[in-house]
């Protein structure tokens, strides 16, 4: 698998996990995308481990007061070496944008994300 394919695979599994309603499915997808000791820099601070990412998704992403939501990748994955970035949109069930952003991730040679940094803005 090429570096670009490894990055795409890990990032798409991470986004699928963010969109998974079933906690067991979410955990499986995160185990495919992230190292066990992933460092996660989100809007609420720093967390370490898949559980920190899973808790963020459960509480913030899936628990949004707007009801059902989803994360959509809005750009191609730009991956110079082991770092990658991608744009995303967080939207409600009607497609209304709730938040937009750009994430930067570090991907290991095995193709797992071991660091995530989230940059988010309210939609314009």
From TrEMBL:
Residues 12-115 form the SnoaL-like domain. It comes from Streptosporangium amethystogenes subsp. fukuiense. InterPro entries: NTF2-like_dom_sf (IPR032710), SnoaL-like (IPR037401). Gene3D superfamilies: 3.10.450.50. SUPFAM superfamilies: NTF2-like. This is Nuclear transport factor 2 family protein. Signal peptide: none annotated. It comes from the Bacteria.
């Amino acid at each position: 698998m090429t570096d670009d394919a490894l990055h795409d695979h890990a990032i798409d599994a991470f986004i699928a996990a963010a969109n998974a309603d079933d906690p067991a499915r979410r955990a499986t997808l995160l185990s495919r995308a992230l190292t066990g000791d992933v460092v996660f820099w989100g809007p609420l601070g720093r967390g370490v481990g898949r559980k920190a990412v899973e808790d963020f998704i459960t509480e913030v992403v899936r628990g949004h007061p707007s009801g059902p939501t989803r994360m959509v990748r809005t750009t191609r994955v730009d991956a110079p070496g082991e770092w990658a970035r991608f744009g995303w949109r967080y939207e409600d069930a009607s497609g209304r944008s709730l938040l937009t952003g750009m994430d930067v991730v570090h991907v290991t040679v095995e193709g797992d994300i071991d660091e995530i940094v989230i940059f988010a803005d309210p939609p314009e």
